[in-house]
Amino acid sequence: MQNTLLSVKTSFLWSRDKFLAFQKEDGLFFPFFRIAIGLFCCTHLLAISRDFELLYTDSGLIPLKILSIQKVQYMPSYSYVQSILTYLGITSSSFALGYMILYGILCITLVFGFLTRFSSLTLLFLHILIFQSSTPYMYGVEFFKSIALFYCFIFPVGNKISVDSLIFKRSEINPTPYRNLLKIHMSIVYFTSGIDKSFGINWWNGESVWKAIHLPGFKSNIIDNYNLFAQYPSLPLLFGIGTIIIEVFYPLAMAFRKTRMLWLLLTISLHVGIILSLNLYFFGLLMILLNLAAFLTLKDDKHDV
Question: Can you give the residue ranges of the HTTM-like domain (predicted)?
Fold first, then answer.
């Protein structure tokens, strides 16, 4: 009897340890995440480079003093650094050019995994400078860009397929705990967003979808008109309810292998729709990249470590 109980107990403990063990899910998570975020930041910079001075300098559309009204106190900002450099005789144009050059170099070093943590931390700092100085221009992509760069800093993303891995010869690190953290974060983001939408009536009756696609600042460059929505009024309603369902059930669906790929495709489709209908190219692209990094397995390395 005692031997049987001991055997059952040992079996239970072994099963529990197997369950709790962090298994390697995707050996390519670190390089994919690092390269994707580095290329995204570089592309984002190139997209705004022509209008950089119009957006973030005193010669722009809105003076920096006005832009800085909404910034968080005691946080560094682009306008504050520029005021110091102006006092030292450095013009705003020179500072803007230097900022973009440094930002671009750091994006390249992040992509190639050279001094990865330094590159990501400095990029995060540079991003915060802009973020704090231009609140009226900010939207969702800026928040998630900050999150992605922060994760590039705390995750050992330079551990594999990088210049750092060639120079420092570090042992391979299991990416699963870090990837799980990203999964949990993404699940919280979508679930809370879906719950928030479900509290009001606007998403259930399609009004939010209808309003969004008719906002002047978000007029699509791809879709000329939405006459189809006028002909079929149920479409905005279906899109609104579909968005709530995708977001609320995101954590549950992503937790199971059988539904994970379907929900990943639905989520990507949701963001492709945002890109096509609202011109939010960078927000949609970044969310797609974060979803792929968290849940798409590029290399199956399932074994206990």
Answer: 29-300
Q: Exposed, middle or buried: residue 39 (CB in 10 Å: 0-12, 13-18, 19+)?
A: middle
Kindly report the pTM of this predicted structure.
Answer: 0.83
What the block records as the tokens of 78 is: 């682009």
pLDDT score for 151: 96
Q: CA separation (Å) from 246 to 160, 190, 263, 272, 300?
A: 33, 8, 7, 14, 26
Distance CA 118, CA 70 (A): 29
**Full DSSP string of 239-302:** HHHHHHHHHHTHHHHHHSHHHHHHHHHHHHHHHHHHHHHH--HHHHHHHHHHHHHHH--SSB--
SS3 82: helix
Give the chain's residues under pLDDT 50: 1-2, 5-6, 8-21, 303-305
